[in-house]
Amino acid sequence: MWLREELLKAIWHAFTALDVDHRGKVSKSQLKVLSYNLCTVMKIPHDPVSFEEHFKEDDKGPLSTEGYMPYLNKYILDKVQEDFDVLEFYRMCWTLCYNKNFHPQRLIISDNDAFKVWCIFNFLSEDRYPLVVVFEEVEYFLRKLTEAMGMGWCEEKFTDYMKQKKRKNWLTVWELMELVGVIYFSKDVDRHTLSMSINEVFSELILDILKQGYMMKKGHKRKNWTERWFVLRPTSLSYYVCEDLTEKKGDIILDQSCCVESLLDRDGKKCLFIIKCVDKSFEISASDKKKKQEWIQAIQTCIQLLRLGLLSPHREARLRRRELRQKQLMDEEDLAERMKNLQAANEAKQRQLEEMRMKMEEVQAKATLEELRRQKKQSDLHDRYRLDLEREKMVRQEMEEQMAAKSSELEQYLQRVRELEDMYHRLEEALEDERQAKQDEEAMRKLQARLLEEEAAKRAELEQIYLKQQKELSQTEAEKEELMAEQLAKEKELRAASEQLDRLERERQGALEQYQEVSRKLERAANKTKTWKDKVAKHEGLVRLIQPGDKGPQRITNWGPASFTDVELELRKKSWQEKKNQGAQAQ
Question: Which residues form the PH domain (predicted)?
Fold first, then answer.
């Protein structure tokens, strides 16, 4: 029997199509027409009076799905029988939502193929509204299509499509149609091949056709063999004249008592097997041994499912996939809850550490305050002792002055004075002993305080050593990485320096060659200049008048011996200076 959830999904599409304003409500008149059409398709007597009585209190406005659902369950779905054409029911619901949402000019699939994809979506979608299909079911559907077309499954292509959806892990029915008709099979796919693949998956998932094909069947009356097109469903094996399924010749009803057995070849027929039912048996001949084994195994699977009271294989597989997803979701929620508890425990630990730190700060503040009080008390005692000493010094000075003033007058009291001095010395000794005792007491107190400070310092030092060890461990890893980076940098610098040294060596060789070339040019220029100097000197020597010259040494210039002597040079300087002075006076 058709599951109520599958019928509700198709009706939900029809209800949503009637909701023009997208408010989740449909007018009462439209729901009345929808109910009439549903009853007509499902072969249920329609009672308009019950519809009016059920919604007599809802005359003010449109109805929501929550308001329509009780009537749908009570007066329609509870009365559904198995004798109605479910494809006609699906097509009626598809017709309502077809014109509103479907755009055939954008797709490479026909309207009929789109209807079949719509039915497959309802089969694979989750049992919650609005209806969506998760990516696991989309992958299952696409794998079925590619397998039917004889293509290999491309995991990367599907993964890229999922990444484009980012955090969205589900598709609506129109997005699934766009994926099949535009995105996924738009390139290098024949329309006819895609249509045949969609029809094959539709027959397998929606029509529960587990297997189909031509085989030979032996008649019960004439005992002749006739080729028939067999269609295996979970509860029956139907046979038709041909594969268009227009003329059915009969059904083999499968139940828990049926069995299928292989037969030996006889009467010129091969690959025989027999299906034994309660009232009769059917002998069938397959085309080859492989087909025979496949048909026997498929029929045995159907009988075994009937004995276990289970649904069709595809519905059982869908149920297992949903249970697995629910289990994964529960595991993820459990993991999230555990992570949340761990985070809460971590935060509690952090709070405890913070409280301990605050308590240590309070203890440290108290110790500091006690130290300040002790220092203040010690300072007060020191000031008091200092005042007592000053007061004693003043008293002693006054006594000495009085004794000095009366020494001349009170000679008779010298003995008494000596006694007083003895008494004074003894008093000083007593005071000194008392002062020494106080100093010893103060030294002991300081010693105790220093021991307390050293103990606190040792404790702090131990904590610092522990923190330092932790820090050194982290620094060791960082220093290791820095040393590796520094070694790589030094190797790079060494290579750069080696390349620079090679370049400098090449430049030095070039400079040396240039220097040699320039030296040769200078040598040629010097020889050429010397030749011209000789010519000039010869020319000037021929023009100059021969007269007695100075016997002094001949002047040497950069170009060789000069053409005149130093005396002649001085004369020329004086002549040039006189001409210059005369020109200045004339101006």
Answer: 208-304
Q: Could you read off the pLDDT of 294-319 as tens digits, one per residue?
A: 999 989 988 888 888 776 777 777 78
The first and second tokens of residue 25, run together, are: 């409500």
Exposed, middle or buried, 527 (CB in 10 Å: 0-12/13-18/19+)?
A: exposed
Q: How many CA atoms lie within 13 A of 430 on its CB side?
A: 6
Looking at the domain that runs over 1-101, which CATH code has it been given? 1.10.238
Distance CA 164, CA 154 (A): 16
Tokens 């929501």, located at residue: 64
| H or E segment and range at residue 134 | strand 133-134
Distance from C-alpha of 521 to C-alpha of 19, rounded to nearest angstrom: 103
Q: What is the 3-class SS of 10-73, one letter each residue?
A: HHHHHHHHHCCCCCCEECHHHHHHHHHHHHHHCCCCCCHHHHHHHCCCCCCCCEEHHHHHHHHH
Average pLDDT estimate for 439-443: 81
- Token pair 């021929």 is at which residue? 542
Which strand (E) or helix (H) includes residue 275? strand 272-276
Q: Which residues contact 478 (CB under 8 A, 6 or more apart)?
A: none
pTM exceeds 0.85: no
Q: Residues in the chain, how many?
A: 587
> Cα dihedral sign for 197, 198, 202, 205?
positive
Residue 542, pLDDT score: 44
Choose which CATH entry (3.40.50.720, 2.30.29.30, 1.10.3720.10, 3.50.50.60) describes domain 211-311: 2.30.29.30
